Amino acid sequence: MANPTETEMDNQLKAGILLLDNLLDQQTVVADEDAYNQIIESDFASSQSSGARRFRATVSTSLLTGQPVITPILTAYTHHIVDLPERSAQRAIDRIYKYFVDNSKTVKSRGITYGAIPSFGAGKGLLYRLTENEDGYDLENEFVETKTFTVLQDENTGAERFREVFEFIGGNAGVDALDSDSSGAVRRNVRAKDSGSSLLSNASFSQFSIGGTFTAGRYVMAALDTVTDWALNAPVGFALDRNEFARDIVGDTNPTSLVALTGGTRILTQAFSVNRLSLNPAFPHLPSIWIRGGSAITAGTVTITWGSKSQAFTLSVADQDTWRELVPDRDLDMWPLAFNEEDAVISITIASHDDEVFLDEQFFGPMEAFDGTWWHPSCAIAAKFLTDDSIAVADTFTVSDSKIQKWLWRLYARMLPHAGSPTVTDP
Predict the structure, then answer these.
(1) What's the count of helices (H) and strands (E) in the chain, helices before strands?
(2) Average of pLDDT values for 89-93?
(3) N or C terminus: which one in the chain shows less Cβ crowding within 10 Å?
(4) What is the enclosing helix (H) or strand (E) of 382?
């Protein structure tokens, strides 16, 4: 048989998807079965309702057997178009995804609006979310539902201080494949992050080697002083402070902040090689640091660099004597393949500051996976999370769901590059 063209393979994929999508309108079948059961009234009611259940079960099972329709199309696509010998569906999707990226191809987006994350309460910690992959595409392989995040344990009910335990819950799952609007996913034992869970060494700056002693809780560093596992561009431009620190985390017997003094640019750096970091490219990694401006701060910048990526934050009067966590935008830059470079480092640069800047609680580590997107709970300073603190995040469709992308998600929990106006349209 002659090799199919790329357009022919695109059309075969669309035809296979249409075969599944035309099997039924899910909501109509579910609603019609419910309406039918509501009006049954006869001597044969039991047999009538049993027959309706069997019919629904048959249709539901047919949806669950959709992979044999689509998988051969995916493997044929890799064989004829991508020109690689993949046979498993997951590996074939990997190859097709890369082919789409390299050739600027897209399918129709599912059009998901990711819900705003509410506050847990004044002064409490925050939940951060990442909804993009390393190529900048929205992560559409998820259930569009309301997800609930609840504190199961705080420091008074079984968790360590600043490491509260969370439960992540999706919506109630339906009884079968016809009622699949919610995930039914539950994930427990997700802990809030602090420097103790960072991949970096000495992330709280509490270990150092100095030639003098603290006076009234403060020590101004000398040229030969060091902060363990961190390289300082000029040690004499820093101080150590035990009066002001972000969090007294468990295991830190002498909480200490590192202070960037005024009078020049201050840089602290830790190479990935210090802790022999080996990052899993399938997990996004989030960097952050807590900062506090001096009582007269009005200007300056703090720049976080992780590998090849960086983001600058502006200091202002709002930072005077106030701790806040600097967290870069959650986007494609969180992914290891996006920030990877030779001799990668984490660094913090403080520049143009008109008063000293306190630094503490450096974090760098993987985010938490839950139903296709990624999450990071971070405890605050002013008020701690408490058991039963809870928020709900509601994702919605901007428009109606797509077809190709929807079925790749349903059958394989995967997605392809997508757009509102795709190059490969829905059938």
Answers:
(1) 7, 24
(2) 96
(3) N
(4) none
Cα–Cα distance between 55 and 46 in angstroms, integer? 14
The single residue listed with the structure tokens 């991949």 is 199
Nearest of 123, 122, 174, 185 to residue 149 by alpha carbon: 185
Residues of the chain with CATH 2.60.120.260: 112-398
User: Mean of the pLDDT values across residues 63-78?
Assistant: 88
Q: Is the dihedral of CA 244, 250, 253, 256 positive or negative?
A: negative
Sign of the CA dihedral with 154 first, then 158, 163, and 169 last:
negative
Return the amino acid letter for 263. G
Residues forming beta bridges with residue 203, ordered by sequence position: none
Which CATH fold would you assign to the domain 112-398?
Answer: Jelly Rolls (2.60.120)
In sequence order, the β-bridge partners of residue 345 are 271
Side-chain-side CA neighbours of 344 within 13 Å: the count stands at 19
Encode pLDDT of 351-386 as tens digits.
999 999 999 999 999 999 999 999 999 988 878 899
How much is the pLDDT for 46?
76
Sign of CA dihedral 116, 122, 123, 125: negative
Examine the pLDDT at 174 and tell me if it is beyond 90. Answer: no
Residue 417 contacts residue 423 (beta carbons within 8 Å) = no
* In contact, 159 and 191? CB cutoff 8 Å: yes
Q: What is the strand order of the sheet 368-370 is part of?
A: 126-130, 373-378, 368-370
Instruction: Report which residue type is found at 268.
Output: L
The encoded tokens of residue 312 equal: 């600058």
Query: Which contacts (CB < 8 Å, 24+ apart) does range 218-222 have?
Result: 218/242, 218/243, 220/261
CB 396 within 8 A of CB 113: yes
Residue 388: C-alpha distances to residues 27, 123, 375, 381, 382 (Å): 34, 16, 19, 19, 18
Read off the pLDDT of residues 110-160 as tens digits, 9 standing for 90 and up. Answer: 999 999 999 999 889 999 999 999 999 999 999 999 999 999 999 999 999
| Mean confidence (pLDDT) of the chain | 92
Transcribe 125-189 into DSSP letters.
Answer: -EEEEE-B-TTS-B---S--SEEEEEEEE-TTTTSPTT--EEEEE-PPP-SSTTS-SS---EEEE
Condensed to tens digits (0 to 9), the pLDDT of residues 334-356 reads 999 999 999 999 999 999 999 99
For residues 319 and 298, give the distance between their C-alpha atoms in angstroms, rounded to a whole number.
8
